[in-house]
Amino acid sequence: MQIRDLIPWARKEHSPEPKTRTGEDNPIATLQRDMNRVFEGFWNRLGALDWPLGGDAKSDVVETANAIEVSIELPGMEMKDIEVSVTDDTLTIKGEKRVERQEEKTGYYLSERSYGAIYRSLPLPPGVDGSKAEASFRNGVLTIRLPQTAEAQSRVRRIEVQGA
């Protein structure tokens, strides 16, 4: 006698017929497909919301001939909501958006609140003169100009590219 003889479903005469299920009638596959659809729908809706709830502030960093320029989109913010600071090697941008709206008319009362914050800490290359930094805010875009020192500009060396 062998072990499989003691297990009823291991014997051929008692083994159930194997059922083959396609993806359409398999309950596990259907559940997984439905759960994937729910999560994808959630993340897609969340990404479609206005910043700062669902997305992220877009920022650009560009090096010109004599400065580093940082532009960051801050829609819905005002100048008083933004704080910019610079150290020897780091530029820090903080902001907080608070929108509150209340409306009361005959038959209904509407109260909406939207809050969001941004914090960016960007490392700066050596040779940036933070004491001469300038910042401007216009049409929801913060632009910061950080001039480079003459020493940093003189260290830039052009390298000729040759074909192989």
What can you see in these coordinates?
The protein has a four-stranded antiparallel β-sheet with strand order 1-2-7-6, with no helix packed on it. The chain is an alpha+beta fold. Mean pLDDT is 77; it is low at 48-55. A hairpin with a 3-residue loop joins β1 and β2. The chain starts with a helix and ends in a 10-residue tail after the last helix. Helix content is 19%, strand content 37%. The protein has three helices and seven strands; from the N terminus they run ααβββββββα.
Indicate the topology:
Blueprint lengths: L2 H4 L20 H22 L10 E5 L3 E7 L8 E5 L3 E16 L2 E16 L10 E5 L2 E7 L2 H5 L10
Antiparallel strand pairs: 1-2, 2-7, 3-4, 4-5, 6-7
Number of helices: 3
Number of strands: 7
Main beta-sheet annotation: 4 strands, antiparallel
- Beta-strand percentage? 35-45%
What are the main properties of this structure?
164 residues, alpha+beta, four-stranded antiparallel beta sheet
In short:
With 164 residues, this protein is α+β, with helices and mostly antiparallel strands. The chain has three helices and seven strands, in the order ααβββββββα.
